[in-house]
From TrEMBL:
GO cellular component: periplasmic space
Main location: periplasm
Record note on cofactor: Binds 2 heme groups.
Alphabetically ordered keywords of this record: Heme, Iron, Metal-binding, Oxidoreductase, Periplasm, Peroxidase, Signal
Intracellular or extracellular location(s): Periplasm
Location of the Cytochrome c domain: 54-171, 210-322
Protein name: Cytochrome-c peroxidase
Keyword Metal-binding among record annotations: yes
Organism: Leptospira ognonensis
Annotated signal sequence range: 1-20
Co-factor(s): heme
List of residues binding heme c 2: 224, 227-228, 297
Amino acid sequence: MNLNRLTTSFFLLVILGLVACGPSQETKDLQLKAKQMFGALPNKMPGSENDTEALISLGKKLYFETKLSQNNTQSCNSCHNVEGKAAGVDNLPTSPGAFGKSGDRNSPTVLNAGFHFAQFWDGRAPDLKAQAKGPILNPGEMAMPSEAEVIKKLKAEADYPALFAKAFPDAKDALTYDNLAGAIAAFERTLVSSSRFDDFVNGDHKALSPEEQAGLNTFVASGCSSCHNGNLFGGNSYRKIGQVNAYGTTDLGRFNVTKDPSDKFFFKVPSLRNVALTGPYFHDGKVASLEEAVKKMAYHQLGQTMKDEDTTKIVKFLGSLSDKTKTN
């Protein structure tokens, strides 16, 4: 056997060895646990099966339309930035409105929002369409005086009447406030993120590093998954902030919607999808770093003083939940 054949045979053996060397039993067990406890995020949001190309295109144009604000300075994207590497937020503690005054709550990410069981921190809107109607008329946000004024403004534009007619071909009067919100919701239903965690759950054992796998184990063992569960890692329940140790806030949360005293200080559990990209954190935006957020949640929600090494592990894992297009 000559040298070339020996070299070829050697490399073939190496390749076969690498192929044969699959995931460890621990990794396979963790993949199964992750699939059972959380699961991968679906590729499409509920309702998107009825969204046409014309409707989505109109919704995207409206999402970036500053004329939906009273002084033509602010769009949906101003607070929920989806351009480039932005992860559906403005990364501010609270967002300034069209006239500069900041609101009381942190702007949550619009990425994957259509998977949530309700919208806003207090759940006052049941779905994306209802949510889209709010900020445009909110005096502290886009500050338009009425639905009628919004429609009057859009009808004065050269392109919107035809675009609405195309997106809503069966409507007698297509350019309505309800249809405006429906179009924005259709665009938002396209904002589905895909992460390395999903790849891991779907069978790619190399998608998470050993450190990230250790972080996932710590995340579950520490009790974080008692609130941050399901394929969104949250977004599916209300919980009291400070359920073990009190959290200092004057915001009454869900109570402002229901007027039920038992709902005081209850907020929608935020999804941890893209959490490494969406700081600052909590409903008030007062926590700057993800490390601090993890420690505070452990203390206020679970009654734990989390060790630095466990915090580091969990933060490492949470990075695997980021949209791959926003991190590459």
